[in-house]
Write a structure and sequence with these properties.
By secondary structure, the chain is mainly α. The protein is 85% helix and 0% strand. The protein is rod-shaped and about 110 Å long.
């Protein structure tokens, strides 16, 4: 008797499935790909089968359409989240690449360029050179430099102005404009 009930349940489920499958696939295909629509509908019918085994009834057609709609919506939301994550990750990678490139570019300033910078600084007049090194290499404030050298702050400012003007002129004439701005600004 139990086998006969299972066979009847299977036969009635097959009829229920065949009566609804084509319309559900057409409905789902409006929102997702054919393959995904078929997967979603199979999931819905598996849920229906599990439900019908427990209570012995099949849900209404409106329930089927609502279940397909909800599964399509969930799938599309997951796809959007994945897409946003991928785009965000790609954007983060591009930003990291630019940061890496920026730090790499700075490392590319080879010893020759560094030596050129130091040589040009050494060519500055003595007082100008001392003040420039204190300001740029020792990172002292103008007031500290003035106090250390026992000169006015205005003199420090003027000497820094002359140093930068001289270096800028030399770098520009040598075609090293970007090197000047990279180091001094």
């Amino acid at each position: 008797m139990k086998d006969r009930d299972e066979e009847n349940s299977l036969t009635s489920f097959r009829s229920y499935y065949e009566a609804n499958i084509s319309q559900l696939i057409l409905f789902a295909r409006r929102f997702v790909s054919v393959e995904m629509a078929e997967d979603i509908i199979q999931d819905v019918f598996l849920d229906v089968w599990d439900h019908s085994v427990v209570n012995g009834k099949f849900p209404s057609r409106s329930y089927l359409f609502m279940a397909v709609r909800n599964k399509c919506l969930n799938f599309l939301i997951r796809e959007q989240v994945k897409k946003n994550y991928i785009e965000s990750t790609e954007l983060d990678n591009r930003i990291l690449g630019l940061d890496y490139y920026d730090s790499f570019e700075k490392q590319l300033i080879d010893k020759e360029d560094m030596q050129y910078i130091y040589d040009e600084i050494e060519k500055l007049p003595e007082k100008c050179r001392i003040i420039f090194k204190m300001a740029y290499f020792e990172e002292k404030r103008n007031a500290e430099i003035a106090e250390t050298l026992d000169i006015s702050i205005r003199t420090v400012e003027h000497q820094l102005y002359l140093a930068l003007k001289t270096l800028r002129t030399r770098f520009m004439s040598e075609g090293k404009k970007s090197l000047f701005f990279l180091f001094f600004f």
